[in-house]
Design a protein that fits this description.
The protein is mainly α. It is about 55% helix and about 0% strand. The radius of gyration is 14 Å and the shape is globular.
């Protein structure tokens, strides 16, 4: 019931248009182009999770937030 925990998130980009349902966008299947980007994104998310555990939140945030 708490929101007090660290997260590692992978962005899904902007909705195709403002009226698009957010849940449909977030839960939709990946396009072929997006699938090509998925493996490196998951690798980086894994690195972020390990950094979070080994070095703590501030180090992980400084190293990975805003990185592409």
């Amino acid at each position: 019931g708490s929101q007090n925990f660290s997260r590692v998130k992978i962005g899904v980009g902007a909705k195709p248009h403002p009226d698009y349902d957010l849940a449909d966008w977030v839960l939709s299947s990946f396009s072929t182009q997006e699938e090509k980007l998925l493996a490196p994104a998951l690798e980086r998310a894994g690195e972020a999770a390990l950094c979070l555990l080994e070095r703590g939140v501030p180090e992980a945030a400084n190293r990975f937030n805003g990185a592409v």
